Amino acid sequence: MVDFxxxxxxxxxxxxxxxxxxxxxxxRDAWKDTRLPTRKTEAWKYTSLQPLQQSxxxxxxxxxxxxxxxxxxxxxxGPTLVFTDGVYRAELSSTVLPSGLTLVRFADADAAQAEQxxxxxxxxxxxxxxxxxxxxxxxxxxxxxxxxxxxAVVEQPVHIAWLxxxxxxxxxxxxxxxxxxxxxxxxxxxxxxxxxxxGGTAFTNGITELLLDRGARxxxxxxxxxxxxxxxxxxxxxxxxxxxxxxxxxxxxxxxxKRIDLVVxxxxxxxxCDLDGIYLPRGTETVDYHTxxxxxxxxxxxxxxxxxxxxxxxxxxxxGRIHIHPDAQKTRAELSNKNLLTSNKAEINTKPELEIYAxxxxxxxxxxxxxxxxxxxxxxxxxxxxxxxxxxxxxxxFINELVEAVAEPGLQAFLxxxxxxxxxxxxxxxxxxx
Length: 434
Hints:
single chain; alpha/beta; nine-stranded mixed sheet; globular
C-alpha cells in the first residue's frame, strides 16, 4: 500500500451515501493488501506508474462553479449528465428521460435503486483483472446508474461527460458507471472524458460495468480526450447474456498516462461483441490498452480491431487476449491490431494472444507495425498534393475505416474534424479529408 491516495481515502466516506459504506469498507480492506504493479509485473511491463508518485486531493465544492465552456463535447440530443472535477453539474445536464430508462446518480438513488446498485456493482469484474478496482471502491462517493427496462428501446444516445478543469492542485476523481440492460432492450451510451487544452494534473480512476441480459443490444462509446498532465487508469468490464450484442468503440488521445483494461465475458450462448479502438499519443505521452475477450460458453463470436498512430517520442502499448474456455465450442473470434509510427523515436509494444482450450473453434489474430508508405506518399505528391497535406491524408486514412463504422451520426460528425485536426497543424491541411 502506498500513500499517494491517503487524502482521497480519508475524505471519501463523509461524502458518500450511507448505503455505499459497506462497499467502501470492502474496497479499503482489499486496497490494503494490494501491491502496485512494477515493470516486473507482466501486465505492466511497458508502462510506468511514475506519474502517480505524488499526493492527490479531492476537489472542493467550488468545482461546481468552474467554467468548462472551452471544452468541446459531442452534441447528441439525448439525456446528458455532466460532472466537473467529479461534482455533478445540474445546469449543464439534461435529464428528460424516455419511457423505460432509469438514469440516476448514486447520491440520488431511492431505496429500491440503491439495493439494485449494491447487488449489481462489481458483478462484472472478474477476480484480479483490475488492480485499481479496490481503490475505486474505497474512494467511491458517487456514480451513475443507468438501467433500461426489458423490451424497451432508447432511441437517443445517453451521454455521460466527466470533465476536469486543471484549476486546482493535483486532484483525484473516482468515476463509476453501472449500465444494466434488461432482456431484449436496446440503448446507446456515450462516455466522454475531457479537459481544457491546458489541463492540469488530475488522476481519474474510472470503472464502467456493462451488464446485458438475454437479447439486449448496446452501443457503447468511450472517448478519452484528456490532454496534458491527465492520468487515467480505467476499465470497462462487460458481461453478456445469451444472444446479446455489445458494440464498443474506444478513442484515446494521449496524455501523461492512459491505461485502460477492457474485459468482455460471454456468459450466454449466441452472444456477440464488436470492439473497435483508436489511440493517438504524441510528444512524450503514453497510452496502454489491455483487452481480454472471455469466451466461456459455446456459439459466441467476437471481432476486435484496434489501430494506433504514435508520433514524436510517444509510447503505446496494446495487449489483446482471446481466451477460449473448454466448453466454448463453435466459437469464432478475430483480433487485429495495426500501428503506424510517424517518427523514428515513437514506440509501440503490441502483443496479440490466443489461449484456446476447445477444439471446434475458428480464431485469428495478428498485429502490424509500419511507417507511412513512401510509394503512397510519392503518388500523392506527383499529383500536386504538398508533402504535409499528403501525410495528413495518409494518417487519417489509416483510421478512417473505424471512424466510418461509428453508427451514431452525431458522434461521427464530432469525431471526424477532431481527428483530422489532430494530424494537421493548420486547418488548410484537412481540406481533402473533411
